[in-house]
Specification:
Layout lengths: L5 E6 L8 E2 L9 E2 H14 L1 E6 L16 H7 L5 E7 L8 E3 L4 E10 L6 H4 L6 H21 L3 H12 L10 H28 L12 H7 L2 E3 L11 H7 L2 E2 L5 H7 L3 E6 H10 L9 E3 L5 E10 L5 H13 L2 H18 L19 H10 L3 E3 L7 E3 L4 E10 L6 H4 L6 H21 L3 H12 L10 H28 L12 H7 L2 E3 L11 H7 L2 E2 L5 H7 L3 E6 H10 L9 E3 L5 E6 L1 E3 L8
């Protein structure tokens, strides 16, 4: 069917990422994204001119009084011929409206706030699940009762059992019944203590989070309200769906932003869109601020709507089916998603941890980098240049600080890096308090010193204990189990991995380092902050190979484009493959990249 330039009235409104508004003067090219591209192909394939109206900026619904709103109402009343915002193909019948064939499918899923980070002190209690903790407590109680059958003194039973459970040497008088029980108990404790110590090491090497909401039952128990305009929970008679429907709040604001930043509500979104938003809404360290609940309440196919009995429907269905079968709709969605991620993340200071690796084809980027430099690519800056104009940007980049990689910590010094200064002060405070408290029970300072040293360094010692000492010793030994576990774990790490002194990661760290800055760029001139003034005073004009001096002399830092600096990290490496340079995470400025032409050049528009 060819319409020979006939005008069709189209209803379409902006919706990321499926319908992104461009120049409204370009008729069928007014929107990009999958919906905009489908419209453009329909216009070309059917030879019609699209008269796009955004008068109805929402999907619409049938109200209780029978009236129809939004783009649904516009199509039903014949105000427009097609509504080109993809919508879910539902089973209910709409008067005066027909669906096209499906061009995609999707699920309606719950987008919840990302759960909070577990504090280091609380991670100890997350070493095991609740059932395992209850099992451990049950084993402790049973062991005390069984041991009491052999030893009538409760005080002695308590000390011996505590010593066994926290892996402290203790002298025991054992008969064969005790030996049998102790054999099985120690096998149990080897497993438990191994897991516990492993968790302590993990605590200081990885970030742990509380469990996320992953099922609709967990969502119901969370008590969070559900922000949506979709009647997803209406068509199911289960008790769970009825509970969730009672928590629905009509959506009249930006749902995802509130989920990400306020964390007091959840929202319903298409799964494909939600996966995109996970890459857009991120924290300063690159962690997503939202979480996609794994259990989705419903699935749909996506299509468009036309007026009932429309003569255009067969041809529209034919073209849409071809686009879907060729994979074009999926490609268009993916292309727009990538563009939105780049746009939203531009300027965000996201920490990226890159692993050192061997030279590979990836490092051949240098060839293309040299080509770009040869084409006179440069930063598009705000200042005006006489007789020169910039082209549109072809890329974006940041100016970042390239600093020398910090030195390796000697093995003997790693012992002192097992804890932070505050923890060391706490340990010394506990030692002093323990000496003073122990001195209250024992008047001989020499004996107090020997006993306390033995307890702290885990050496067997014979003690005469009263009930006050037993109580204090119980809490002290629990503290020492944690400290010794971390300390032993750090010793293992010392001989299995290389540790370095902290790198320069902020501009304040750079200022405190006292290093000069080698650059020919006036990055710090256009900012009136005291920090930037200090840094500007350390600038040395660049008249030599900056990166080589940073890598090998380690007496200066340099300013480089971030993309180039990431490449140089793989080029300047030591004999063991470790990068000799470090990219400071905080970058002072961002730019777009473009080329320059003569002012008024006739070639610039093309």
């Amino acid at each position: 069917m060819k319409l020979n330039g006939h005008v069709l009235k189209i209803s379409m409104f902006a919706r990321n990422p499926t319908a992104v508004k461009l120049n409204a003067n370009k008729s069928s090219a007014a929107f990009s994204g999958v919906d905009g591209n489908v419209l453009a192909q329909l216009s070309q394939g059917m030879d019609f001119v699209a008269d796009i109206s955004s008068e109805f900026p929402f999907y619409g619904q049938t109200l209780r009084n029978g009236s129809v709103t939004g783009t649904l109402g516009a199509v039903a009343k014949g105000v427009v011929d097609l509504a080109m915002n993809g919508r879910f193909i539902v089973g209910q019948e709409y008067d005066s409206v027909e669906f096209t064939v499906a061009y995609s499918n999707d699920k309606i899923c719950v987008v919840a706030p990302k759960s909070g980070r577990i504090p280091h002190w609380a991670e100890i209690f997350h070493s095991f699940r609740l059932r395992v903790w209850l099992l451990i407590v049950l084993v402790i109680i049973m062991s005390l009762l069984i041991w009491c059958a052999f030893e009538r003194s409760w005080g002695k039973v308590w000390i011996e059992m505590c010593s066994i459970f926290i892996n402290v040497p203790v002298k025991l008088s054992l008969n064969w019944e005790r030996k049998i029980y102790l054999t099985f108990l120690l096998q149990f404790l080897v497993i438990i203590n191994g897991i516990f110590q492993g968790n302590l090491i993990k605590t200081f090497s990885a970030v742990s989070y509380y469990p996320d909401i992953n099922t609709l039952e967990e969502l119901d128990k969370s008590g969070l309200k559900i922000l949506t305009s979709l009647g997803v929970f209406n068509n199911n008679e289960s008790e769970l769906f009825k509970h969730l429907q009672g928590k629905v709040v009509d959506r009249n604001q930006s749902a995802i932003e509130r989920v990400a930043y306020c964390k007091d509500i959840v929202a319903l979104e298409r799964k494909n869109d939600a996966n995109l938003f996970k890459s857009v809404y991120v924290s300063s360290d690159g962690t997503s601020l939202i979480h996609l609940v794994q259990e989705c309440p419903i699935s749909y196919h996506l299509g468009f709507i036309v007026t009932e009995g429309s003569p255009y429907l067969p041809r529209v269905n034919q073209l849409v089916r071809r686009m879907f079968e060729c994979g074009l709709t999926k490609k268009w969605y993916s292309d727009m998603s990538q563009k939105i991620i780049i746009k939203m993340r531009f300027g965000q200071k996201v920490k990226k941890n890159r692993k050192v690796k061997a030279f590979s084809l990836y490092d051949m980027q240098l060839v293309f980098l040299t080509l770009i430099l040869a084409m006179n690519g440069r930063f598009i800056v705000g200042q005006e240049y006489d007789s020169v104009e910039f082209t549109v940007a072809y890329s974006n980049d940041k100016i970042c600080v390239v600093a020398p990689k910090s030195g390796r910590i000697p093995h003997w010094a790693e012992i002192f890096h097992s804890f932070r200064l505050r923890v060391w002060l706490l340990i010394f405070l506990v030692i002093i308090m323990s000496l003073l408290i122990w001195c209250a029970f024992e008047r001989s300072w020499g004996k107090v010193w020997i006993e306390m040293c033995s307890i702290f360094i885990n050496v067997p010692v014979k003690l005469s204990l009263n009930w006050e000492r037993k109580i204090y010793l119980t809490f002290l030994l629990q503290f020492l189990v944690i400290i010794n576990g971390i300390f032993q774990g750090n010793l293992i790490k010392t001989f299995s991995a290389v540790s370095y002194y902290p790198d320069i990661n902020t501009l304040e760290d750079l200022d405190k380092s006292g290093l000069k800055i080698l650059t020919s760029l006036g990055v710090f001139n256009n900012n009136e902050s005291e920090l930037f003034k200090h840094l500007q005073g350390k600038v040395v004009d660049r008249n030599q190979s900056a990166i080589e001096r940073v890598a090998y002399c380690k007496d200066i830092v340099a300013l480089e484009r971030k993309n180039d600096a990431n490449l140089f990290k793989s080029v300047y490496v030591s004999s063991d493959g470790t990068s000799l340079i470090h990219l400071v995470q905080e970058c002072p400025i961002s730019y777009h990249l473009g080329f320059i032409v003569t002012e008024g050049s006739p070639y610039l528009p093309r």
